[in-house]
Amino acid sequence: EAYRGFRINYYAINGVLARAYAFIGKYEEAFNITEEIITAVDNTKQRLFSFTPNADVEENPKTFLDLLFGLSNEKLADNYTAEYNATGKLYVDHYTITFDDNADYRNTKLLTKSGTKYFSTKYLPSSINSITSHICAKLIPMVRLSEMYYIRAEYYASINDFSNAIKEMDIVRDGRECTKGRLDDIIKDEKSFRKELIKEAQREFIGEGQVFFYFKKFNQPIYSSMKESDFTLPLPDSETIL
């Protein structure tokens, strides 16, 4: 479509700009940008971006109805399956901590269990043969609608308005059919907000490379043996030669 999928577009560019503003702490600027994205409508006044319904998730495990932008790799499913079968290292760490809501379809439909470990089904070949499943097979999600709501939540948290921060997070949770009201008794301050936002990011962006940056921007410890230096990516040779 004209506004999402495999095309870089106006809303995707603004989404990345909002991400950048939030990363450097310019929360109000980021918030203002997200407003245009989440309220965008087409010629029939229908929202351009909406959350993928539960009924469509098995056919559409990348939930691309809420994507602002994604890349395409024709060999993605083959490459992932080879790595999945060869290493067995693509499992979900700390499943019981991260996926603590049995109503959440990211838990019930986007994970599979092998032995004692859980794996994301986002990149595994679908058993459903359809146009949607073929789109999913080559799709690499890059910018999501959900991230815009998380950015809005960060803005409210930055001004100590945790009630509205929770409301923004709950919009995503409602879109994923989570149990309502769970965050009201948990988020009380900046520390608890960041902890829950990271958990939300872990559920939402599994396999998409975004969670790394949530730990990084909040300067939070992670669940693996990574060192502080591991959070700094090496510069390409072309940028280090004087």
Map the helices and strands.
Elements: H1 10-23, H2 27-38, E1 67-72, H3 76-87, H4 95-98, H5 105-108, E2 111-114, E3 117-120, H6 131-138, E4 139-144, H7 145-158, H8 162-175, H9 190-204, H10 211-218, H11 237-240
Antiparallel strand pairs: 1-4, 2-3
Helix pairs in contact: 1-2, 1-7, 2-7, 7-8, 7-9, 8-9, 9-10
Keywords: Cell outer membrane, Membrane, Signal
Organism: Butyricimonas virosa
Domain RagB/SusD: 62-213
Structure description:
With 242 residues, this protein is mainly alpha-helical. The chain has one domain (10-223): Serine Threonine Protein Phosphatase 5, Tetratricopeptide repeat (Alpha Horseshoe). The protein is 45% helix and 8% strand. It is built from eleven helices and four strands; from the N terminus they run H-H-E-H-H-H-E-E-H-E-H-H-H-H-H. The chain has helices spanning 10-23, 27-38, 76-87, 95-98, 105-108, 131-138, 145-158, 162-175, 190-204, 211-218, 237-240; strands at 67-72, 111-114, 117-120, 139-144. The strands form two sheets. Strands 1-4 form a two-stranded antiparallel ribbon. Strand 2 and strand 3 (117-120) form a beta hairpin. Helix 7 packs antiparallel against helix 9 (190-204), helix 8 runs parallel beside helix 9 (190-204) and helix 9 packs antiparallel against helix 10. The model has no long low-confidence stretch (mean pLDDT 88).
